[in-house]
Predict the structure.
Amino acid sequence: MSHVPYADALGKQDPQKVIAATPERLIELLDDLSEQQLESRPAPGKWNLRETIAHMADCEIAWGWRLRQAYALPHAVMEPFEQDDWARAYAAYSLAEALGCFKSLRKWNIAFIAALTPADRAKTITHPVRGKETLWTLVEVMAGHDLHHLAALERGKRPVAKVRAPRTLTQGYREGRIRKAEKQLA
């Protein structure tokens, strides 16, 4: 087993493809869920679906900083963060805000990652526990983290009780709860 977090979740998948697909996958998983479904906890002390998206947005901030540290600094040391401390503020964020933040930052980070040369990917950063890792290892951890949370979201998603007539993709796009919220933020 690898010492790299989420390596098992990523397996042999291309991390760039995984991180690029995550925003749309999140929308698919969350589209048309009720407020009750978004706010219910899978177990006491566990994050609900909205809080999980807020966590992913927070992590995107951390990934962006870490990637750029590894890229720019010759002897960068990764600053860890305690996710539960950051999570104390999650009640302040709506699902639309959390998802909007995640999507914007992810788009920015994807563009950064796409511009990396092989030499850039090999640059190192020191993790305080795991030791030296490459910039590309951060991308792999990022992708594995996405897959970990996507699987948890899939498990935590409750079936929608109402029966709906089949919709076209365009109708689903217009009617989707998430997409409506995104329009309100725009």
In short: The radius of gyration is 18 Å. Residues 121 and 136 are 5 Å apart (CA to CA).
